[in-house]
Amino acid sequence: MFKYFLLIFLAASFYIANRVVSVAKINSRLKYVVYALFLIAGLICVAVFLGRRQSAGFIAFLTPLGYIIMGIWAITLSFCIVNEALNLVMLVFKIKNFRHYSTLVCLIVCVASSLWSIVNAGCILRVKEVDIAVPALNKRSLTIAAISDVHINDSTDPKDIVRLFEKTASLQADMIVIIGDLIDVDIVKDDAYKRYGFDALHAKYGVFAVSGNHDYYTGLPIFSELCRKTGIVMLQNESVLIDETIIVAGVNDVDWRNTEAIQSAFSSARKDLPVLFLSHRPESFDIVQNIPDHAIIQLSGHTHAGQIPPVEIARRFFMKYNYGLYHAENAVLYISSGARWWGPPMRFGNVGEIALITLGGEAQR
User: Fold this and answer.
1) Residues 231-242: what's their mean pLDDT?
2) Is this structure's pTM higher than 0.90?
3) What average pLDDT does the segment 210-235 reach?
4) What region does 306 belong to: left with phi over 0, alpha with psi -120 to 50, or beta?
5) Which tens digit of pLDDT belongs to each residue from 240-296?
6) Which residues fall within 8 angstroms of residue 280, CB to CB, at 6 or more apart?
7) pLDDT for residue 268
């Protein structure tokens, strides 16, 4: 499978290089230099992808550059495909040199979009306020600060995570939940986690977390130990009662489509109280919405709202679950775009967020 992806990736890189050579009208030996540079960039991406689990050495040094190249490649390919479709349509009108100028504009847009994507991911983190009516809630309101997809890795500046956690805590929500993909590397070893500001995460009813797929890649025992050391309540196919008001349940990422495991998270939940269900992957909603006799609010992440094209386009228009609110008869799903990113430090068409969710109960009506 990987070899086919590699062939497609290198072929697409050659295509983009060809567009650059064509627009710049490079007909001399210089065009071979351009092709060579694109080949080298492609090989860097492949090396970084294959060695992405390495935490030291030359690959670790190349990783940030490789991911940025991947992001630029993805954005450029997406716009180039749109441009080619436009050129096919314009063949009917036979406008002179249209292909040349449309490709020139396309490449300029690609550069601008790539730069914006880097700025967007690195500098913009919004607080997304979400109101959900929950008639079964016996309080006027309950607030939850939800973060997902933090993706702490070897290239992460601890100060960025400190700011994220401090901003989350400053919302003064009744509880804080972390919906998976917190770590991509072991930050428990040598107490490295202390540099990331976990001690800022405090809330009236506590801090809760479930694992994501990247937490599993890093090692579930490591994630579990991190939660223990930082006072975070890790939920593994189980639930807890909070102040006779709400049940907080959670499922391990490995069980995201395991009906039996998900049902076990609800097995001890009182049916007269709403259930806040944490699952890193939104697809668990297909199972959850069919669990009877419970008012359920599911919080998920994982999708990054697509992060960058072409994934952003594919998820937005063709995937069942991408971002935002989804409703079923007795259940509601909110999917966060995630606080940070995975891979390319870039976002286009979406922004990172901390979701501040307000559950409104009977007394509010």
Assistant:
1) 97
2) yes
3) 97
4) left
5) 999 999 999 999 999 999 999 999 999 889 999 999 999 999 999 999 999 998 999
6) 148, 179, 180, 181, 210, 211, 212, 213, 253, 256, 300, 301, 302
7) 86
Q: Which amino acid is at 313?
A: I
pLDDT of amino acid 56: 60
Residue 303 structure tokens: 């999708």
Assign domain 126-364 one CATH number from 3.60.21.10, 2.120.10.30, 3.40.50.620, 3.20.20.150.
3.60.21.10
Residue intervals in the chain for CATH 3.60.21.10: 126-364
Residues 6+ apart with CB under 8 A from 177: 144, 145, 146, 147, 207, 208, 209, 248, 276, 278, 299
Cα 168 from chain centroid (whole Å): 17
Q: What is the 3-state secondary structure (H, E, C) of the chain?
A: CHHHHHHHHHHHHHHHHHHHHHHHCCCCCHHHHHHHHHHHHHHHHHHHHHCCCCCCCHHHHHHHHHHHHHHHHHHHHHHHHHHHHHHHHHCCCCCCCHHHHHHHHHHHHHHHHHHHHHHHHHHCEEEEEEEEECCCCCCCEEEEEEECCCCECCCCCHHHHHHHHHHHHHCCCCEEEEECCCECCCCCHHHHHHHHCHHHCCCCCCEEEECCHHHHHHCHHHHHHHHHHHCCEECCCEEEEECCCEEEEECCHHHCCCHHHHHHHHCCCCCCCCEEEECCCHHHHHHHCCCCCCCEEEEECCCHHHCCCCHHHHHHHHCCCCCEEEECCCEEEEECCCCCCCCCCCCCCCCEEEEEEEEECHHHC
To 5 degrees, how large is the angle CA 47–CA 53–CA 55?
A: 95
Average pLDDT over residues 225-252: 97
Average pLDDT, the chain: 92
CB atoms within 10 A of CB 293: 9
